[in-house]
Amino acid sequence: MEHQEMGLRIDETTDDVLDVLAQHGYATTGMLVDETGYSRPTVTKRLDRLYAAEKIEYVHEPTALWRLVEDPRGEGGR
Fold first, then answer.
1. pTM strictly above 0.90
2. Count of Cβ atoms closer than 10 Å to residue 68 Cβ
3. Which of 5, 35, 43, 63 has CA atoms 20 to 30 A from the CA of 11?
4. CATH number of 9-68
5. Buried b / exposed e across 3-42, counting CB within 10 Å, b at 16+?
6. How many CB atoms lie within 10 A of CB 43?
7. Computed from CA positions of residues 41, 61, 31, 71, in that sequence, does the dihedral angle turn out positive or negative?
């Protein structure tokens, strides 16, 4: 199932990344890799897209900590 918001494509992989961020509020890139099972480049690509769409923010560079600002999937996620 695909969702659209302002040109941001929410595919299954992005949806899985958002699920982890929505559950915890914050996550490191490494945690997202571990929790989703996707490769680091795949997760990083989705984070870059979410960041460009201003849906997440980069909180702490040394640990690559991300924070969910707004879930682009709307209320309740999925």
1. no
2. 20
3. 63
4. 1.10.10.10
5. eeeeebebeeebbbbbbbbeeeeebebebbbebbebeeeb
6. 25
7. negative
Rounded percentage of the chain residues whose pLDDT exceeds 90? 81
The domain spans of the chain are: 9-68
Contact partners, residue 77, CB within 8 Å, separation at least 6 = 18, 19, 22, 71
Q: What residues contact 7, with CB distance under 8 A and at least 6 apart?
A: 53
Pull the structure tokens for residue 2.
């695909």
The dihedral built from the CA positions of residue 63, 53, 45 and 13, taken in this order, carries a sign that is positive
